[in-house]
Amino acid sequence: MGDSTRFSFLSLLRHGAGKVWDRQWRDAHPKASYGVVIVGAGGHGLATAYYLAMEHGIRDIAVLDKGWLGGGNTGRNTTIIRSNYLQPESAALYEHALKLWETLSQTLNYNVMYSPRGVLMLAHTHHDEQVFKRHVHANRLQGIDNEWLTLAQAKAFCPPLDVSPGVRYPVQGAALQRRGGVARHDAVAWGYARAASAMGVDIIQNCAVTGISRGADGAVTGVETTKGPIATGRIGVVTAGHTSVVMAMAGVRMPLESFPLQALVSEPVKPVLPCVVMSNTVHAYISQSDKGELVIGGGTDVYTSYSQAGGLPVTRETLAAICELFPSFRRLKMLRNWGGIVDTTPDRSPIIGLTPVPGLFVNCGWGTGGFKATPGSGQIFAATLARGEPHPIAAPFSLDRFLSGRMINEEAAAAVAH
Amino acid sequence: MLLIPCPWCGPRPENEFRYGGQAGLTRPAASADDATWSAYLYLRNNPKGRHQERWRHQPGCGRFFNCERDTVTDRISNTSKIGPR
Questions:
Q1: ipTM, 2 decimals?
Q2: What is the least distance, in Å, from the CA of A403 to any CA of chain B?
């Protein structure tokens, strides 16, 4: 079992001499009951289990997944990390996550390949420029790095970018968050799974939740699954695009709509793109993976759907935008494209906290950009689950803001680009 | 790409249409309580399976119509004109 393997230079040397790597986490079978059941073994769910065990001493935890670990949006996103959101509540949330990213590999003793290579957000219109400058100023007041680059500075930071004035939407400048970047999505899921499993958390794959049981007082008493019933008094639902489906099992309607969000990768090439580039106006974002593939994403499909594919018109629009920004990429072949199902809220901010059902907690609504928040989301949701009341950073993101009207509007920061 | 049968214009490609969200939402009276208004404005069924929704044939006839679509297969089983209540 891999629990005792601690990665170090020495352990790498030993493995170089022929020792086979152990399995990194236990593939468990469910017990009859748990203190806490987390539904969804993606990055957010696994991080929640890790911080519950690590920081709150709760180790009697099952993390259930209908498929395999990290096989949903964790394995399907474009891995962009940044914290340059507009509203103070969001900036606090995403900056909390970004600070955890900076030391996550050391914390987990697992290389999540966090690479702060800079996130460049392009302005193509006068309006873009005003909005981004507002973001830059707001972020700097919040103590978050974000700076405005002139056209020449943007070109110097990202040489393959076409900044000529002859294109349909000429680049006029850009906002740059230097601490933003990317991380290895699979490694994030595996790292949290390994660390949680080592502390006794049961990770149960291919175990779909089919019902939520409740007692006479309305409080949750357990979950029905394809591997039998599991009793528990506390359930954390972390199921991204399928949150409405799971919450309906407890009779809770959610302010969510699920849309396909597509991504695609090119054939691998030598290093050509030194940073992450995003454009809201032409609807595309791009970075280069360490394998050399260009990782490309765009906007969501226009209609709600659970088909993890997405429509061709969106793919075409996204690639057209990339070809305009980077004419030198036009001859590259695309290797794969796929879709993930993202749960969007009316104000484009997540929902983290309690629900009307006692014992039932939810962490959802991350929409098109949840990956960047993984460590912070897991940590504050774990605190919320452990204490039965919202963590201070999570408090503004409560479900009842859709009743009180206290929205956290991040449409400008999140509408397209993630 | 979806081929959407507009009840007025016949089958047309997806990019001629604008998605109009869940069908059958009824605007509450101005005097309704916060919970009713919140449900009308924000809560959605978002089902995995058959979904009753609205589309608008924007550059065609410009009219809204009802549509029943399966959100897993994206197959449209029925579209119909919006009639009198």
A1: 0.95
A2: 5
